[in-house]
Every structure is written in C-alpha cells, then in structure tokens.
Amino acid sequence: MSVSPHRETEFSSIIHQSWQRSKGYNIDPNRKYGKVSKELWKKSIVNNAELIHTALPLMNDIYQLVEGTGFMVIICDRNGRLLKTIGDEEILKKAESISFVEGADWSEEAIGTNAIGTCIKVNRPLQVFHYEHYLKVLQEWTCSASPIRGSDGNILGVLNVSGPYEKVHPHTLGMVVSTAKAVENLLNLQEKNRRNEVMKSYLEVTMNSLTSGIILVNQQGDIIQANKTLQDMIQLNEEDLVSKKIAEVFTNQLFQTDLFMFDNIKDRDITLKTKIKQNTKHVLLNCKPVYQGEMRIGSLLTFQEIQKVRQLVNHFTGNRATITFKDIIGESPLFLKSINEAKAASHSPSNVLLLGESGTGKDLFAQAIHNNSKRSAMPFIAINCGAIPRDLLSSELFGYVEGAFTGARKGGNSGKFELADGGTIFLDEIGEMSLDMQVLLLRVLQNREINRIGDHKVIPVDVRIIAATNKNLKEEVRKGNFREDLYFRLNVLPIQIPSLRERDEDILLLASHFVKQYNQKIPRVIESISPSYLNAIKKYDWPGNVRELQNVIERSLNRCTSGVLSIDSLPDEITVTGHQVETTVDPNVPGKKAEIQKQLLLDTLMDCQYNYSKAAKKLQISRSTLYRWLDRFNLK
C-alpha cells in the first residue's frame, strides 16, 4: 500500500515508525489473509495455559459489556499468535474472513501495523484506528491492545478488543488497559502464592530435618507449627499440637504464664511434661521472639533432648569406646574364659566388676563389654577414681550448678553420670574411692538418679556401671575401707582377668602384635624377632603385665639398630632377671634328686590333666618357671 507523505504526517509517531518497519518487511498491503498455524497454536495453548485460564473470566466480563455491538475480545501470546477469541457469531464470522482467528499470526512482521503486533513491538498499550492499519483489509477495524507483563516486566501476552471503526469508543483502550492490569495482578499473585508454597515446602523440609524440636507460637500462645522432631520427641501428632494453646499441651508452669512470650530464654534445663499422654522429656529450651518489622508476632521455641546433646558432646570430646572383643589379643584357656564371661556380661544390664592386677587390660574389657551391648551407640564415660582428688570427685561424677562453690563455672556443669546417660560409666580403681563418696555412689545405684552439687533437683539417669579394681575388695571390706553394701551392688558379674604370668603362652602372640603396631609408628621396620629375645621375654615374670610388655616392645624397637629384634635391645632388668631365674631353676643336684623332681613334675601334670596353669599353681611356681622346668627335663 502506498502512503503519500501528506498522509503519513497525520499518523502518530508510533504508527509512522511502524509503517516504516512494515515496508521493510516487504508485506503486501493488499494481502487478504493472515497466516494460520494450528500446530503452533496448539503448542502455544499448552505453553500459555495459565495466562488463558487467568484471563478468560475477565475477557468474559469485557464481552458482557460489548456484547451485541460488533466487538470481539482476544488474548494473544507474546509473539502475537491468537490464543482465544470471544465475540458474537456475526463478528467472529467476519473475522474469519480475514484469518483473524485462533492460531493466526498477528505479529507486526506478519501483517504490518496492527494493535496486537505493534503493541508487542513498542511494549505499550496502543489503539490502531481504521486507516492506520497497514493492510487495507483491516482498515474497516479499530483495535485496542495492551500488553500483559510478568513480574520481571517481560511481555507474557496481549489483550485486545476489536470491532468496526465507526463504533469505537474513546474509553475502549482504557478498559483494555485496566483489564490487562487486572490479569497481571492475578498472575503475579499466583506466582507469589506458588513461591510461598515452594518456600513453605522448603521450610517444612528444613524444619523436619532439624534435630531440635521446633514450635512456633503467636502472641496469643497458639501453636502455629510444630516440626516432626518435636512430635516424635513428645509422642504427639500434628493434630494434637497445631492451633492448640501451648498451655493446653504442656503442664509446665512456664507455659501457663505470658512471661515466656517476652523474655529471651537460653539453654534452660527443663523437664517437658505433656497433658494428653503425660509424657516427660528432659530438654534444653531456647525461646526467641519473632518480629514482623518492629511488631512482635510470636515466638520460636526450640527443644533439644539433653541425652542427644550429651551424645553429641561425647562424640566430639572422645567419650566413646573404641575397643571391641576382636581387638583384645589372647588365646590361653584362662584368658579365653575371661573373654567369654565378659561377652556374656555384655548382654546383661547388671553391674560388672573387673578384677585383676594393674596392666592386665581392665579398661579394654570395659570398652569391649560396652561395644558388645545394646548401649553401644550411647556414651562410654571412663573416670579414674584414684586419679582425682577426693574434694573434686563428687563434682566430676555428679556435676554442679552455678554458684555451688567458689570457682564454679557459670551456668554450672554436667557430671559424668549425666554425660553417660543411656550408656556406660566405667569407674576404674573403684577401691580408691573414699567412704563418703561410696555413700553417694550407692545412692545412685539404688535410685538411678542424681543431684548436682548445690541443687535439690533430681535428675534421673539410665547408666550401666562397670567398675574395676586391682585390690581385693573383700579384704578392703574386712578392713573397713570399702562398704559391704556397695561391694554387693557392684559385684553382680565379677570377671577375673588373669595376669600375664598366668597366661604366658600369650606373651609371644602379644609381642608380635605390638611389633606390628609400632612398626607403623616408629620409622624403622622390624622383620623378625630373635630366638634369644623371645626366650628372654617368655621367662620374665611381667609384674606390670601387658602394659609393661607393650612398653618393653616399644623401647626395644627404638633401641634396635637392625631389622631383627635381638636380646641386646631388651632392658637390663629383663635379661638379668631371666638369667637369674634360669640359674635357680637348674637342678644342680645329684642325679637321684633331679629324677625325683622330674617325677614330681610328671605326676603333677598327670593329676592336672596337663593343664599347665593348674600344675604351676599346685607346685606353687609361676607358669614361666614351669616351662623352664619342662625345657630342663625335656618334657615338652
């Protein structure tokens, strides 16, 4: 279509520029039809389902205003493709004659200047009147279009009202703009609602992933939300909690007043009590205010189970057992008997008393018993009753509250029994405990509860006791150094751990184990152990037991100058003692007396069914000495 310069000057700047672009598109102004693609239309319908669904009710509202006037209402996608048309049958039929139908491409690039396509091009509301259309066939129409924008400002689609140019009203464009704005607002609201739902889902997952119980309450004390951790903690479901007054759920006096709503509460130790099931849970409570701007709207309450807090502390502070029965080395019958007794004890909740000399591995047995029990996942707390001064042992075991004594830590301190709750407490060197402490310990064993120093509050504890001593507690009871009632409380499952001299067949096994262990730590490799070295350590009596043997092996590796452990690397006390013992054992007597000794040894072995431990005990000699006699008389 040719437009004279005079005609062009009458157009607005927007229309003029659009016509210039239309000429550049090489569009024939005499063309009769637009381009229609049903395939692209169907795809666009799917992609713009929310836009159509949101706009359609408002389009119907507009149509009710213009019904019977020859106008139609159209919604297009962001590219100008018609998605949905509403109008009288007559106007829709007229529109069909120029391909103004659903699926048609009404972009400026397709049909030149028009309200829909040019509105998209300039990104603003636009009314194209009569002869301002580029195609002649459209000049019988007047179209009013407004873009529908998303929250990011980008065009989502276009709302358009079209009809005969002679019936156009100056307020038509305003009506279209306000309706398009209403569609935008609805779409933005839906987007916000979706975001809120997404955030709600994230928040719900986050809250339910927390190890702390969470309750949100409003200013009136109504529970707004309670996470899954809290529900499991107090064994109540969401229906028992949400929309209920917090004072109706919990019986604690704290929740019966409004004080908690206004004060910050930090790490308050409380026993949480519920009304419905009368459950109790020992927790740390924290309370923080929730604000919207400067106005307080509620509170966030967090509940941490004391036991789980202690488990976490114990995990990071090393209060756990690392030894299992597989880690304990030994094959002698006497030692295996102790192992079997310990394994049996691990399946019982009863108290265990480990008996044996220093260095026999009582602490290893205690850890293995714990790790083989139902409490293996819970804390293992060890305390040496003989290593802590009497005046400090009480606070170590039972804890204290703030201000209990001079130097007491601010906020108080948990004792070993609290830290061991649910697990095992190992009381080593129990025979060194003072009588006044024995009274307190007895009370804990009887009542299964403690009082922190300086506090009357009773704290229940579920603790398995393993005690150990190198003393004869029966003798200590007789002397008045140990309470008989406490002895009977502890001595439920006594386990005697043999000394190394009673299990000297394990000496070589243990020595090899320690050599391998220290080979990894000390920067040299020991490939073998000389016979003289093995003979010397086998003949030594080991008063310090396994601990002494371990020390000697480490010392030997440090002194060794080759890949073979020789007798030269042993401490003098072992080589000298071994030589002296060997000389005393030599039956330096006439042949007849030696024969008598040999026969005595044979008879004793037969009586004891060749049980070397029993034979040594009957002859009142150590097993090391027994082995030397066997060597001397060639009886092995």
UniProtKB/TrEMBL annotation:
Highest taxon of the lineage: Bacteria
Species of origin: Neobacillus citreus
Keywords: ATP-binding, DNA-binding, Nucleotide-binding, Transcription, Transcription regulation
Keyword field contains Transcription: yes
Residues in PAS domain copies: 199-250
Limits of the Sigma-54 factor interaction domain: 328-558
Biological process annotations from GO: regulation of DNA-templated transcription
Any Pfam family hit: AAA_lid_14
PROSITE patterns noted in UniProt: PAS (PS50112), SIGMA54_INTERACT_1 (PS00675), SIGMA54_INTERACT_2 (PS00676), SIGMA54_INTERACT_3 (PS00688), SIGMA54_INTERACT_4 (PS50045)
Keyword rRNA processing: no
Protein's name according to its UniProt entry: Sigma 54-interacting transcriptional regulator
InterPro entries membership: AAA+_ATPase, AAA_lid_NorR, GAF, GAF-like_dom_sf, Homeodomain-like_sf, HTH_Fis, P-loop_NTPase, PAS
